[in-house]
Amino acid sequence: MSPAEKVVAGIDLGGTAINYTFLDERGEFLIEGLCEHPARSVEGPDVCLTQITDGLDVACRAANLDRRKLVAAGLDTPGPASGSGVLSRKGSTNFVHPAWAGFDIRAGLEKRLGLPVTYLNDGNAAALWGHVSIFGSGNHATSVSAIIGTGLGGGVIVDGRVVTGRNGFGGELGHVLIPHGLIPGIEGLVPACNCGRTGDLESLCSLTAIRRTLLPHFLAASPGHPLAGEEIGAAAKRVRALAERGDPLCRDIFRVQARALGLFFDEMINVFDPDALVVGGGAMETGPEFRDWFLGEIRAGMPSQREEQATLPIHVMPQGDSAGARGAALDAARVVRERGL
Ligand SMILES: [Zn+2]
After folding, report:
1. Which of 40, 205, 263, 302 gives 20 to 30 Å between its CA and that of 69?
2. pLDDT band per the 50, 70, 90 thresholds, residue 3
3. Are residues 230 and 276 in the same domain?
4. CA pair distance 6, 82, nearest whole angstrom
5. C-alpha 114 – ligand 1 centre gap (Å)
6. 140: number of CA atoms within 13 Å, CB side?
7. Are residues 224 and 151 in the same domain?
8. Where in the sequence is the domain holding 88, given as residue range(s)?
9. 157-171 as b/e, with b when 16 or more CB fall inside 10 Å?
10. What separation in Å is there between the alpha carbon of 196 and the centre of ligand 1?
11. Are residues 145 and 293 in the same domain?
12. 205 alpha carbon to ligand 1 midpoint, in Å?
């Protein structure tokens, strides 16, 4: 096999850390796990872009890669941002410094690096990685990925392409309304989301939902539970570990999350007739017993499917921590192929 001459970088800018990966023209990732550098995004674009550039040099050294082989870079960040990488004028949790408002982070990084830079939001980037990990690059398959974190991220890939939409809000799966009244165990509950909607996927299926809605709901009926005396934020973070150990109340919370996903996936099946569904995030980064139970509960929450769709697979997102960086790199590689760079 000849040595790879062209390499693209994947740069995942998170709240506190930047994670890097490299993808060569044979389709091999040159970094196995995380390769992180502090993000410093709270200090504004100038400091943060310098951090990204410096961190890229560090990552090149770590991967024993000659930086001159880089032909493009893919960047992904939390939103909200336009499809071309212009951050929201209203600011956001991850970009609080006033100089970020309306800042074109893609163009800013392109100028610093002197390389073509592509942009995806973090959910869409992770969805692209989940998709390619199943179908390979250059495929024409369709998949829907849901990633459970503080919020609910993810994306839709149709015919091998990320659906970003007209304004960059395509694949905002967390804010799709679901018929939550059909979920057993939460009768009468009014689940609110930060976006202002009631009863969307994120309002039930996220760490925020556990803290704000589900844990208080279930604790109210079980005042003697060990988590009842704890501060709610700290208690919410312990729910997964307790659920893994079989705590019935914590399992009930994850059952509601799985059932919510099941209803959501049913909607997606009827819209896209996809080749695969993918689930990622904290709930999946657990032991096989809990993971299989959770996947089983997702299926149990789905209305019965047509015969042709009954065997639709639900995959677990592999390499979840690096999903954003890998998806960003895959997007850059696509642009390199299409433009013949
Ligand atoms: Zn919402």
Report:
1. 40
2. low
3. yes
4. 29
5. 37
6. 0
7. yes
8. 7-130+321-339
9. bbebebbbeeebebb
10. 6
11. yes
12. 10
In a domain, 66, yes or no: yes
- pLDDT at residue number 1: 38
Cα–ligand 1 centroid distance for 206 (angstroms): 11
- Sheet hosting strand 276-281, strand order edge to edge: 161-162, 152-158, 143-148, 276-281, 314-316
* Residues 6+ away with beta carbon under 8 Å from 197: 175, 177, 203
pLDDT class of 90 with cuts at 50, 70, 90: confident
303 and 177 in a common domain: yes
| Count of structural domains, the chain | 2
- 1 occurs within a structural domain: no
Say what the pTM is.
Answer: 0.94
Contact between 71 and 7 (Cβ < 8 Å):
yes
pLDDT value at residue 4: 60
Q: Is the dihedral of CA 170, 173, 174, 175 positive or negative?
A: positive
Are 33 and 162 in the same domain? no
288 plus 332 within the same structural domain:
no
Alpha-carbon span 162 to 130, nearest angstrom: 11
Q: Are residues 147 and 248 in the same domain?
A: yes
Residue 42 maps to which CATH number? 3.30.420.40
> How remote is the CA of residue 150 from the centroid of ligand 1, in Å?
12
